[in-house]
Amino acid sequence: MLSEKKSVWVTVVNVLIALVAAFTLVYTYIWNTNVALRLFVAAFFIIGLAGMAWRKYGRTAASAPEAKKEAAITKLALLGDDGERIKEWYIHGETSLLVGRSSSDLEVQIDLSGTEYAALVSKQHAVLNFTSGNWYIEDLESSNGVGIKKRGESGKRLLNGDAPEQVHSGDTLYIANTRLLVK
């Protein structure tokens, strides 16, 4: 409902801008005889059109870092043995997520207690932290470790227990034998 109201107001403002632009052109080139004003309005419209064209089509070398910026991570997907997504957790806006098995005395945000390999998952297995615009995973001295398979790589590797590992969209996390796809 709120986005519909915003969209209506955006349309109203766009129509008003178009009407003001049309009136300016009519006044300047039909009723007005001042050559300097005609040149100023022509230059203003040319610069405006060039700016709009650059915003739409001209993002090249000047904005290369923006173009290379990868998609933001918004969710984790629990994968079955066949690669099918069984469950998803939306993590956009979170700062820290405990991965493990929930119990009566401990609640984790990414609960793997109902998974096929739940017996291999520690209660506090790993933690995902968001800092400085990036997600990191860290093994919390779990019994069966945390692995990661980077997007585009063929094999997984175990995390070093002392250091957090940055994760990217497309990476697969291994919590014991349970696979989580980072999206």
From TrEMBL:
This is FHA domain-containing protein. InterPro entries: FHA_dom (IPR000253), SMAD_FHA_dom_sf (IPR008984). The lineage of its organism: Bacteria, Bacillati, Bacillota, Bacilli, Bacillales. The chain crosses the membrane at residues 7-30, 36-54. Residues 97-153 form the FHA domain. Keywords: Membrane, Transmembrane, Transmembrane helix. It comes from Paenibacillus tianmuensis. The keyword Transmembrane helix applies. It holds the Pfam family FHA.
